[in-house]
Design brief:
Mean pLDDT: 92
CATH superfamily: Winged helix-like DNA-binding domain superfamily/Winged helix DNA-binding domain
CATH architecture: Orthogonal Bundle
Strand order of the largest sheet: 1-2
Strand content: under 5%
Number of domains: 1
Number of helices: 5
Helix content: 40-55%
Distance between the termini: 25 Å
Structural class: mainly alpha
CATH topology: Arc Repressor Mutant, subunit A
Largest sheet: 2 strands, parallel
Low-confidence stretches: none
Number of strands: 2
Radius of gyration: 12 Å
Order of helices and strands: HEHHEHH
């Protein structure tokens, strides 16, 4: 399985109404140093409707300014359509919306 495949596998498991950070996805994919690789993989997402790359945000709970599928406005709209509420500063409360894996 390629690094990208590992990343896509992790991202595919993020449930609706939750987000994960690039670092969290990297760790779950097998290497905590892959955060930038996660961003690159998601920018090249082969199945945007299937692999929910919009559910991945930065460590501050902010959307990607260069979201490959419509920019940060599109990413925000997708997350809001799943029930995620943004703070006044445009960030997401990670304590509330961060994906918690079953083993946590």
């Amino acid at each position: 399985m390629s690094v990208f495949d590992k990343i896509y596998c992790v991202v595919s498991k993020i449930p609706k109404g939750s987000v994960a950070t690039y670092g969290q996805v990297a760790l779950l994919a097998g290497n905590p140093r892959w955060a930038r690789v996660v961003g690159y993989a998601l920018h090249n997402n082969p199945a945007p409707g299937v692999i929910p790359c919009h559910r991945v945000v930065n460590r501050l709970g902010r959307t990607a300014k260069t979201f490959a599928f419509g920019g940060d406005t599109a990413q925000r709209q997708l997350l809001e359509s799943e029930g995620i509420i943004f703070e006044k500063d445009g960030s997401i409360d990670l304590n509330k919306y961060r994906w918690k894996q079953k083993n946590e």
